[in-house]
Amino acid sequence: MTGRGRGRGRGGGVRPPQRVDPNSLTSPVQKMFAEYSIRYDNDHDTRERIYKTTRDVTIESKRIIFLLHRIGEGNKEEIFEQAADALHVLKTEILQKIVTELSKHKFYFWKYNRWFSFGFQEYIEGLSFLHYLKTNKLITKEEIEKELVFDLEPVEEESEESSNKKRKTDPDAMEVHDDDEQILMDTRDGEVLLNGEKLEFKLSYNDYMLGILDLGGELMRYATNNVTNPTLRATTFQVCHFLQKLDVGFMSLDETPREMRGKIEPLKQSLLKVEKRTSYIFTLIL
Prior knowledge:
There is one protein chain. This protein is mainly alpha-helical. It has helices at 28-68, 76-103, 113-135, 141-147, 160-169, 178-187, 205-225, 233-251, 258-285; strands spanning 149-151, 191-195, 198-202. The protein has a three-stranded antiparallel sheet. β2 (191-195) and β3 (198-202) form a beta hairpin. The longest helix is centred in the N-terminal third of the chain and has 41 residues, at 28-68. The protein is elongated and about 85 Å long. The N and C termini lie far apart (83 Å).
């Protein structure tokens, strides 16, 4: 007899596990594992909420990037305004959810980084693309963080009994030591800060750099689209010069994470394509 049908209810669906109240158990071992089970379930639910919301960030960021590629001679200000409005909606309706969720698990920022990092990289790509089109400059990490300030959502007060119970079952409801706080205050490399009635999201340097690397591909497409337009050909030379400086900057880094190394090569390919376009423009001029 096989165990193929074990754990399944009517209709073939998997039965949801029954959560056991640890306080109802008498065995210390059973109680310990029941508490661990609740911790794992809570952790899984948090990851799922963050991941699902982050996918929406990616989708909306791509739409903003596509919108910016529609820029022409006579519609620049209109496109800029539409992109700025879309970024504001993205911030207040989607990013707000992620940052609020992370604020509840403040000292586990890096634990959940994998589940939201890709969305913030896409957001950085869109925001930096808009910034470059407006200023011909690279947006800094600090300038992005000024955009990532959110209103603090009201939280219901918990009773002492409820708070103690949560501390036992929630892996993120931990005691905070002054030393831990000081470490985070010194690094500022990825965290959520509470500043009065505001939540401030501090990007990790890694996410910032990865988002900027993605910008290279969009600038290459932007420059390529302008080659055939005589009045916009100058932008191709500007983009070429900008990408050359980016390439030099990333090449000057002694140590780079594996994910970053995987994006440096596409940046070089984008630069090479733009350099070929500038050579083509010279042939047209001469």
